[in-house]
Design a protein that fits this description.
Elements: E1 6-8, H1 15-25, E2 28-32, H2 38-52, H3 56-59, E3 81-86, H4 92-99, H5 103-130, E4 141-150, E5 160-165, E6 171-175, E7 183-186, E8 193-195, E9 203-207, H6 209-214, E10 224-227, E11 234-244, H7 269-278
Parallel strand pairs: 1-2
Antiparallel strand pairs: 2-9, 3-4, 4-11, 5-10, 6-9, 6-11, 7-8, 7-10
Helix pairs in contact: 1-5, 2-5
Domain Fe2OG dioxygenase: 141-243
Pfam families: 2OG-FeII_Oxy, DIOX_N
Family: Belongs to the iron/ascorbate-dependent oxidoreductase family.
Length: 295
């Protein structure tokens, strides 16, 4: 059975090239030796579960009218899904204040966000290195932490908890559920669904639409879904690295040449999210609206 690449983040030689190759061929890969302690990951899942257990009126204090933001309750379109997000990881204290979280829970959330954001920075540096560049790719970028709960039951088996979509971010770092599988990606070549089953002490990295823009079409903005195989509650926690807040995303000049002409105009990451949601184009098709005339 085909499966996504597994990359050792402590590899000394060729790590950047391995990550770039995985982004191009799969748009998804697992990472080991990533530096986020297993104990912290387990504690963060406990915190997430406790937040979802809060009364509905308290959870709704984090509602946000923006697309893909704030608290999302179960509804007719997504009857099994519920989600929280800290829409700017710099505003963690505001999120915690609204939910009256304990000092211990606040500490775990802050520790987890720092660890996973540091990891994102490391991946960004290796992406640059693998492309013959250097620097801090994600310096100052807007990041969102989203906690997901899938209320699976006997009636949900064989249905989707989250429908087919690509992520609107550059990349997503996902802590998936250690006991309930469900993530499936679309293979770039065959178009078939490939399961991304849990592997202990690992994290999943997905490339999103903005990653495809920055790479001038080289990276695969992988389409994926969450499938229900068994009636067990499923949790996941994802960091979405969306984009810079003070300039637009475009491919570096080193990724543009006669063979690879520039495919996309400069894109504002927040504007792109609004276009995607308002036009209900959630599988990457919205990128066609931002193609250059030459593309």
């Amino acid at each position: 059975m085909k499966t996504v690449p597994v990359i050792d983040m402590q590899k000394v030689e060729g790590l950047g090239g391995d990550i770039v190759k995985a982004c191009e061929e799969w748009g998804c890969f697992r990472i080991i030796n990533h530096g986020v302690p297993a104990e912290l990951m387990a504690e963060m899942k406990v915190v997430a579960a406790s937040l979802f257990a809060l009364p509905e009126e308290i959870k709704r204090r984090t509602l946000d009218p923006g697309p893909g933001k704030g608290y999302v309750g179960r509804n007719a379109i997504s009857p099994f899904y519920e989600g929280f997000s800290i829409d700017q990881i710099s505003s963690t204290n505001e999120f915690c204040d609204r939910l009256n979280v304990s000092a211990h829970q606040r500490e775990i959330i802050n520790m987890y966000i720092k660890a996973i954001r540091d990891l994102a920075g490391h991946i960004g540096q290796k992406l640059l290195e693998g492309s013959g560049l250097d620097g801090d790719l994600f310096d100052g970028w807007w990041c969102q932490l989203r906690m997901n709960k899938y209320h699976y039951c006997p009636e949900s088996v064989g249905l989707t908890g989250a429908g087919l979509h690509s992520d609107p971010s550059f990349l997503t770092i996902l802590q998936d559920d250690e006991s309930v599988n469900g993530l499936q990606i679309v293979d770039k070549l065959s178009g078939e669904f490939v399961p991304v089953n849990h592997v202990p002490d690992t994290l999943v990295v997905n490339v999103g639409d903005i990653g495809k823009v920055w790479s001038n079409g080289r990276y695969y903005n992988v389409k994926h879904r969450i499938w229900c195989f068994e009636p067990k509650t499923r949790y996941s926690i994802g960091l979405f690295v969306f984009g810079p807040t003070d300039f637009k995303i475009e491919a570096p000049s080193t990724l543009v040449d006669a063979i690879h002409p520039r495919l996309f105009v400069p894109i504002d990451a927040e504007e792109y999210r609004h276009v995607r949601y308002s036009m209900e184009m959630r599988t990457g098709g919205a990128l066609d609206l931002f193609r250059t005339t030459s593309a």
